[in-house]
Amino acid sequence: MANIRVSSHPLVAHKISILRNKNIKPKQVRELMREIGQLLAYEATADLPTKPTSPLESPLTTYTGTELATTIGLVPILRSGLIFVDVLQDLIPTSRVLHLGIFRERLSLQPVEYYNKLPSEPNVEQVIVLEPMIATGGTAVAATSILKDWGIKSRIKFITICASRQGIENLIKNHPDVEVFVGEIDEVLDDHGYVVPGLGDAGDRLFDTPHA
């Protein structure tokens, strides 16, 4: 799985260890997810293409600057993917946000699309999908298929904090060209589709909603 980039940053590992703790409060969950998202975003954007700017003026002389040479779309998977939006927009102010709502049906564990705010035609050249957890991989596979059908031709990137081995393999099996930037991969996916030890339900922990 050459396109799977597991972070080796010690701060990512440290923050995920704290995030796993079931006793931390939603405020700290949100803070940790944003911090981890920022570190993963740094890695995910390292190869973005650039181009020189027109001549600019520094306090001392004229210089040629650097700017992004591509338009970036941020695709948060509702609802938990929203936690990464501000982080990525701070890093890439010119990015556009394209929302997708996909939930996992409780019994079948199959993805169900319920919201799609993609324009009729692609208005970005590259996309970064924001999804804090990849469990079975079904939602990630569905999101990638939707984006490809929409017309995205470049490599699709994912930023995720924690994923199961099975979920990652499912995603790469169906879309071997995607690139995933992940904090940690857990080996176990239980019978209910939860990553173990995982993070629990990311949306419930972020928004302090009881798990039904």
TrEMBL record:
It is an enzyme of class 2 (transferase). GO terms for cellular component: cytoplasm. Pathway: Pyrimidine metabolism; UMP biosynthesis via salvage pathway; UMP from uracil: step 1/1. Its cofactor is Mg(2+). Keywords: Allosteric enzyme, Glycosyltransferase, GTP-binding, Nucleotide-binding, Transferase. Pfam families: UPRTase. Residues 6-209 form the Phosphoribosyltransferase domain. One of its GO terms (molecular function) is GTP binding. Gene3D superfamilies: 3.40.50.2020. GO terms for biological process: UMP salvage; uracil salvage. It comes from the Eukaryota. Its EC number is 2.4.2.9. SUPFAM superfamilies: PRTase-like. NCBIfam families: PRK00129.1, upp. PANTHER family: ADENINE PHOSPHORIBOSYLTRANSFERASE, URACIL PHOSPHORIBOSYLTRANSFERASE, CHLOROPLASTIC. Belongs to the UPRTase family. This is uracil phosphoribosyltransferase. It comes from Gigaspora margarita. The lineage of its organism: Eukaryota, Fungi, Fungi incertae sedis, Mucoromycota, Glomeromycotina.
